Amino acid sequence: MTSVKEIAQHAKEASRNFCRNRAHERNQALHLIGQKLEERSKEILAANAEDIALAKKANLSPALLDRMTLNKQRLLSMAQVPLAIAAQQEVVDIIVEENKLPNGLWVRRQRIPLGVIAMIFESRPNVVIDCSCLAIKSGNAMILKGGKEAGRSNKILVEIVQESIKGLLPAHLIQMIEGQEAVNELITLVDFVDLVIPRGGESLVRTIYNNSKVPVIAHFRGLCHIYIHADAQLEMAEKVCLNAKVQRPGVCNAMECLLLDQSLPTDFIKSLFQSFLREGVEMRGCPRSKALCPQIKPATEQDYATEYLDKILSVKIVDSLEAAIAHIQKFGSKHTEGICASTPEIIAQFQNDVDASCIMVNTSTRFNDGGELGLGAELGISTSKVHAYGPMGAREMTTTRFLVQSDGKIRA
Prior knowledge:
- The protein has helices spanning 4-18, 23-39, 41-57, 62-68, 72-86, 126-138, 151-165, 180-186, 202-211, 234-246, 266-278, 287-292, 301-304, 321-331, 344-353; strands at residues 95-100, 106-113, 116-121, 141-145, 174-176, 195-199, 224-228, 255-261, 282-285, 297-298, 312-318, 336-340, 358-361, 381-382, 390-391, 398-405.
- With 412 residues, the protein is an alpha/beta fold.
- The chain has 2 domains: 4-219 and 379-405, 3-Layer(aba) Sandwich (Aldehyde Dehydrogenase, Chain A, domain 1), CATH 3.40.605; 224-367, Aldehyde Dehydrogenase, Chain A, domain 2.
- It is globular.
């Protein structure tokens, strides 16, 4: 049996050799992945059905079940991911800046891969395809560790990737490990692993973040807000907020807290609350919101600090834009924050004063997603600013180095 250290060593060697592969070989491998996903769709769905059956027996939460479920539509979308990534501009081995300096040096900056990335995730089998394809496009090797709840789905998807790259790219470019002990060892292998990205529940991310010796890009929780200002277009605002909460409530870019300006028409607020109730959303709110809708439960401080990942919504009526911003500054997770408003100055103030990886203006928070923002897919949404902030695509899996040339210049 191959040890974790050997897997990491193989990955490091694969990353070194990967630079020899040209763009057309990387893109050819991506097209093959898309093709094989379609060809083996029945096998994938069968494996996923087994995972779902076991997950239901284990009484996993509806949010987790939704995240790990594959169906024909989701599988079709998954098969389009490698094609979309292949069609993107190249992000490695390109010169992004060059200057000829007065001292006679020709200085260029070249974009290069990070090296070996360990991707540790829960629930979502689509992460296997998204991250493998982004690694291929960006010239990185990747070691995947998925949650055991989706073990069968993850295994067949990794097999498809490995079969697709065979003969085109280094054999150990994409590998998978299993078990918590393997993770504990992997995150200490600083000689072979360049970056760890944990993606999943907050406890998983915190554990990796606090214990890894390898640099970590944290993808913490998504406690997302939308603030409706008094000058918002009300019909549009209602549509945006409903979509942000109910379209898929178990994901990190779903709205968890709705902030309403006190100057909004009372009839609009009442109508909006009823729209959420009709969608089966449980609301927990402040005294002012509860006075307008008796079905709202009293909200605690903890409610406003909770990422529900469910059809539960915190609600608060605030005195002003400044009060809304203060609430977000206190409870926000720097993931996605939104405003519905019309006045450019109001929008600009919100954008300037709110710190988040993505600010949505009159737009559902559900669009903070690599695929929706033109990245083809994402490793996840970084809530830390080093080395990336927001959805991480192929470009965010690279760095730059200097290429310096002269005609024999020496420094005096």
